[in-house]
Amino acid sequence: MTDPHVPTGERLQKVLARNGVGSRRACEGLIAQGRVSVDGHVVRELGTRVDPVASVIHVDGIRVQTDSSLLTLALYKPPGVVSTMYDDMGRPGLAQYVEDRPERLYHVGRLDQDTEGLILLSNDGELTHRLTHPKYEVPKTYIARVEGSVTRGLGRVLERGINLEDGPARVDRFVLRESAPRNSIVEITLHSGRNRIVRRMMAEVGHPVMELVRMKFGTVVVGHLKPGKTRVVAGSELGALMKLVDL
């Protein structure tokens, strides 16, 4: 077994406390209880020292991001903004919302120009790659206002799957929030990253989308974010997102 102790490193409890896991004393308790692993090995010795950048640390199976150079943000993208940092055609892009950030950030996936809601920005290349790779089937949840009166049976149809011009498509979960004669509100969760997939599916079943908001990406929720505002994804929220894609 490889010893995770790095003689020239920092004390493990200090690294945990600095990265928001808890107070120094609380972190010592987590270590003593065997709830902390370093590089795949459970650590119970309070004197253990680690490399704060290179060591891979988990608490209760959740990754602790210790590299302070890596940043992930949640942004509420307003409608009418394209999902690129800068747009060659002069349309408003995402860079305007992070102009005060020194890091070079990239968008994690895309939202249609007319769709608003949660999009992640990050300079963590491995996390970005995994979150957008079909292998990990990262779920995204949307709230849509659609034309017409939606019946509860539509959910079963969409969960079984329908055929679109580019192949079969299905939702993971469908919730009818509100149904009225002229329009309805539905909640849709799916992991497909295909272009305009929610809009195309709802149009195919006779309920074109009027408004579309992404509320959740993986384990990250939009929460109280206002259009054009950002917040840092860190601590247990970031750890849960990393666990979702096996980091």
Give a structural overview.
The chain has helices at residues 12-18, 24-32, 125-132, 153-160, 197-204, 235-244, and strands at residues 10-11, 36-38, 41-42, 49-50, 57-59, 62-64, 72-77, 106-108, 116-122, 140-147, 162-164, 167-169, 173-179, 183-190, 209-217, 220-221, 230-232. The strands form four sheets. Strands 7, 8, 9, 10, 13, 14, 15, 16 and 17 form a nine-stranded mixed sheet that branches. Strands 3-2-5-6 form a four-stranded antiparallel sheet. Helix 1 (12-18) packs across helix 2 (24-32). With 247 residues, it is of the alpha+beta class. The two termini are 21 Å apart. The longest helix is centred in the C-terminal third of the chain and has 10 residues, at 235-244. It folds into three domains: 10-64, RNA-binding S4 domain (Structural Genomics Hypothetical 15.5 Kd Protein In mrcA-pckA Intergenic Region, Chain A), CATH 3.10.290; 72-135 and 219-244, Alpha-Beta Plaits (2-Layer Sandwich), CATH 3.30.70; 139-217, Pseudouridine synthase.
